[in-house]
Each structure stands twice: as structure tokens, then as C-alpha cells.
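Pair request: fold both.
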Amino acid sequence: MKYALLLSFLVFFVFACKKKETENSPSTTVVQSGVILPLDTGNYWLYRDRKMDENDSVYDDRSFGFNIGADTIIKGQKWFNIEANTWYSNKSDGLWQLTGHSQALVYKYPVTKGSTYTTTTTILQTPEKVSVLSIDTLIIVPKGSYHTICYKFESGGDVAYAWFAPNIGMVLQESISPKSSGNGTYISEKLELTSFVIK
């Protein structure tokens, strides 16, 4: 019984976005420095990528990684290539994405808890409302424990959460889907950080 309660607590702790606000952090602001995603050629992140059905059964479990392969200067701004035809740059207000001729602020940084903005990115691939749900959530993943910022992306019925540790990058991402019964939602995909190299 004791182990069942402990396991229940750990599952709740890891999956709730308001998992753990540190006691000494302000409720709406935090001093933030550096960048939300360190961009430099050769940086690399590896994730465990699991896809689940609505009964929480894993039907696909694999490793997924991305690295920064090249950089270029476009209109005086340095951009780094992570995905085919998609470039990223850290600006004074956060991480921007460039696809074709379209730029979008993906992860605002620094941020304030409760702030919202609208973007169009490759995350949900449609105009998305982004909310900053927390600015100091402790997340535990295979690579370790990290204090993170929780971003929530919403577009229509699609929802995704991304937890970023400043100066490290994405630690956890969850995609939420509606159940076929129409009653409730479930985690349909989860990416957890397993290793990274930052130069």
C-alpha cells in the first residue's frame, strides 16, 4: 500500500504541469538569464519518444534526436538549422523559428508566469495560443532533474506542453489528444530528455 501511494504521488508529480513551484520563487516573475535553447553548431539533444493509445498502452517507443548542423546569416541575424528548411535564432524576446520567408516567436524568453502570446510554428502547424503555465517546475526525466518553464500550445482541439530548462533546452514534451468516447483526454506522445551535448 505504501509503495502504491508513493507511485501514485510520483505519477501525479511528473504529469501535472503545476508540478512543483519552488517555495522561494516569486509567483509571477523570476530572474532569467541566458537563452531558452543554446544554439551552436554541434549541439545535440536525444529523447525517448513514446506514442500511447488512449488506454496508456505504448505502441511506439524509440529514440529521437536533433542536432544543430549549420548556421547562416540572414538580414544580419544568425540562424541555426535544426530541421530540414527550418532555422532557429535566439533574439532578445526568445527563440524564433524561420521557415521559408515566415518567422515566428516559438518560445518567449524571458517570461512571466501567466503570460500568453500567439504564434504559428511547426509544433501544431496552425496558429497557436501559447500560455506560460509555470516558471519553475521541477521535472524528472531519464537524464536528471531540471527546473523548467512550462509552455502550453493550443490550436483547436490540439494541445501540447513543452518544459524547457533555460540554457539546456527542451526537457519534456507531451501531446494531448481527446479520447474517442469524447470523455476526457490522454497523453498521446511523450518526449523525455535522455542525453545532450552543449558546446
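--- second member of the pair ---
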Amino acid sequence: MKEVIELLVKHVRPFKVGSREYTVVDDCVILEVARDLALPPWKVAGDGLEEGIVPLRYAKNLGALSTWEQARICRSCMLICGCGGLGGVIVHLAARLGFGRLVCVDPDKFVPSNANRQWFYFSFTDGKSKARSVAEFVENINPLVAVNCMESRVSSDHLKGVDVVIDALDNVPDRVELARFCETRRLPLIHGAVRGWWGQVCTLISEHVRIMSEIYSESRGSGLEEVDNSC
């Protein structure tokens, strides 16, 4: 860390957010230091934050987060399962917030019926892999983020090295299976589902992720994403 700070401090400048002033550094400096020291940019950003050097792109996050919290986010890995309507929004915002590593998993390709709600559907992504397209966009949204895409259904192997898991899947069997994977690895699972005007969200911590099978038990009928609520 010492070498990182010595290089960053040469390029810092003051930046005011409201009444508070921060010591900030630009993306280009972080990327250059990362290249020179053969480190991932998210690690350089995290090291800087721990010493009070804020990447300029995160300066306005500090109205809601402390520098310690932002540093922790920079060092964290999020797994997003499903990169469509809900997952695409989460990937986009997680990249802007500054999660250091994102793993995006989705076996599907974009189709025209996605156009009304999926942020990464464009005419030029039609027919292309959702996971790969999302990963390419993230690289442009935030170059400090490392993104890995998996064009497959989620498996237990995808959870290796992950700190938090997002369930943005579109079917009940995969949701329940993902919850079992999280329970085995004792990982927090944030579950979300949406259809039409309806939505549900909950956070399940380690041993409590088994609640997912109760949410989607057979006695309760279809999951939210399978209900026709057009009326």
C-alpha cells in the first residue's frame, strides 16, 4: 500500500462537495498506478480511500457513505445472477457505486421484447449475449471495476471469492437452487423479483437463506415472475 500512496499523492487535488472538501484523484492516475505496479485498479482505489485519497468518480457517494465504507465496496465482489430487467439495473448502479469486482451470470441473449425495460438492450445488442454485453458496458461505465461474464446458468462454482450475491433470476427453480448454494457457502443473498406493477425484495443472511424455499413453496403457487397480472 505504501508504494501506491506515494504515487497517488503526487497527483491529488482538493474537491468540494457541499461544505466538505476531499482530496481526490482522477481515474487516469489510478489506472496508470495500477499498470505501473501490476495491480488491479479496484485495489489501488481501495488503498487510496483508506488513506483519505478519494477517486473523483466516488466523491459524491460520500454524502451517503464514509470513506471506509467506500473502500470496503471497492474491495468487494458482487455476483449478479440474471442480467435482464432487474439485473441490468443492478449491474449498472453497482458499477457506478464502485464495487471492485462484478461477476455477471446469464445464459440468455437479448431479444426485441426486452426493449421496453432492459437497460442494456439496444439495436446493436439484439441477439447478443446479455452477460457479455453487460460486461462490455461496465468497462466503459467504470474502468476501475473488474468484470467477469458467465454465459451460463448459475452454478456453485460462480460463488467462489464472492462477498454478496444478487438474485435477479426469472424462474423459481433457479432461485431456490441459488439460495442453497448461498446457504452452503454462508453468503448473504439479496433477492428481488418484479413483474408489471408488482415487486418483492428481501435480504437473506447465511443460515436464513433457506427461507427462499418457503417464499416459493408449492403451496403458494407460482412465483411473482410467473404470474399474469396484466389485469
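Observation on the second member. The chain has two domains: 2-73, 76-226.
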